[in-house]
Amino acid sequence: MPPAAETTMSVMPSRILVADEEVECSRTLCGVLQRDGHAVDVIPDGERARQLLETENVDLLIADLVIPGLDGFELLQAAQRSCPGTPVILVSGFGTVETAVRALRMGAYHYFQKPLDFDAVRATVTEALDKAASSARRRRDPTAPDAVSFDLEDVGIVGRGPWLEEVMRLLCKLAPTRATALLTGESGTGKELFARAIHRLSGRKGPFVAVSCGALARDLLESELFGHEKGAFTGADRQKTGRFELADGGTLLLDEVGDIPLDLQVKLLRVLQEREFERVGGTETIGIDVRIVAATNHDLAAAVRERTFREDLYYRLKVVEINLPPLRERPHDVEPLTRTFVETYARRNGKSVCRVGAEVLDLLQRYPWPGNVRELENAIERAVVLSEPWAEELDGALLPENIRFGTPALYPNAAWLSLPSVERENGAASRHYMDEREWINSLAEALQRTGGNAAAAARLLGTSAASVRRMADRYGLRRKAVGGRPR
């Protein structure tokens, strides 16, 4: 351990101002933010909050719309004058859809209605601070390497190479239109980030709203999407505004759209066709102007054949389909992603880590990443958090064990598929993983067990259905697996 005098901290904690006179809410919010390492000032008076904004550096403002002195909207404008670039989150216990829309159009980063979901606020604060830091870096050094055009760093997209250029060309053509987009790809490939990019590039003035269709039970999902009237069902003690209504004028991401129950798919299809709906338990028809982006890690075409997803809804969603490749098929992205995550989590946790050695990068680029970018991010966060305060280089020994030892994904021989095609074809795979013949046997076995279903086989192998189809067709396994024992 080096002497104490040599121990350094790479970043200062973010300073957050909470302007809210509601004591209990402020105390809880303050505690949540302080546990994340932020310095928090709580001021129950709008005029005093404005004075602090004008005289001291604040990294983020959270303001209630109704406080003595100045209201939240006036504080938002004060922050925009005094400290441009500082994200502002507005909250209110008496908000309406119109209030939310006004807040976002005035430039608020986000709007929350009380009682607050503190986990959601915490995640939004982290996101806002990271994006503000990224924007500041670009202002300081507009020629910084590894930056992707279109300000994609604002939505967390980091990458390079032809695949990203092709996706962005498509997004730039798609975004200004009203066409529905379907984002496909394995879990963890960044579908929500690209949905946000579509929203940013669209120029739409309304908010970006996301809902995870697979995380809620059927009745809860219906209420979450369409809202409900007071008394619509037991426990509905007040009117609830649904996500479609909240996203009016903006973009709604239907994440995990393949998990929507069949009966709700009918109602969703009507909204897409007619651009109107009724709240649960209501009779008033509500018209909306919402851009729909759907995302799924399922094979929707297979779901249509299996009659678990409506064909008419599938084609309504799939006006423009964008497939995001898994991380193992774009290993050149591992380096810029790793450096970005190191910088983010070092700053967030007060660590000094700022370098990644060649050996660690080589290790990361060899691993097949069955969990894609999300798995890489979690691995880097772990290594940074466990780093010694004085360490400036990422220690590979702090990465998860399965990554250090190159443990294959979910199936013993699946890692072979993860190598770049040139390495597979010239035999380099044998230096790192099971040999090609063993992997082909694993692929054949997976297809045999699943009756030739590429999507099901991909789940066994820990890879993508597209990769399974490509390799199975190359070796003639798919047809043989369906009809009998593969040779």
Structure write-up:
The chain has 487 residues and is α/β, with parallel strands linked by helices. The chain folds into four domains: 8-139, Response regulator (Rossmann fold, 3-Layer(aba) Sandwich), CATH 3.40.50; 168-323, 3-Layer(aba) Sandwich (Rossmann fold); 327-404, Helicase, Ruva Protein, domain 3, CATH 1.10.8; 427-483, no CATH class. The protein is 45% helix and 11% strand. The chain has 21 helices and twelve strands. The chain has helices at residues 23-35, 46-55, 72-82, 97-105, 118-140, 162-174, 191-202, 218-226, 243-246, 262-274, 300-305, 311-317, 334-349, 358-366, 372-385, 401-404, 421-425, 436-449, 454-461, 465-474, 477-483, and strands at 15-19, 39-43, 60-64, 88-92, 110-113, 181-184, 208-212, 251-255, 276-277, 286-287, 291-296, 320-323. Helix 3 (72-82) links the parallel strand 3 and strand 4. Helix 18 (436-449) packs parallel to helix 21. It is globular. It starts with 14 loop residues before the first strand and ends with a helix.
**Strand runs, count:** 12
Could you report the average pLDDT, rounded to the nearest whole number?
78
> What oligomeric assembly is this protein in?
single chain
The tally of helices reads 21
| Helix percent band | 40-55%
How many domains? The number is 4
Distance between the termini: 59 Å
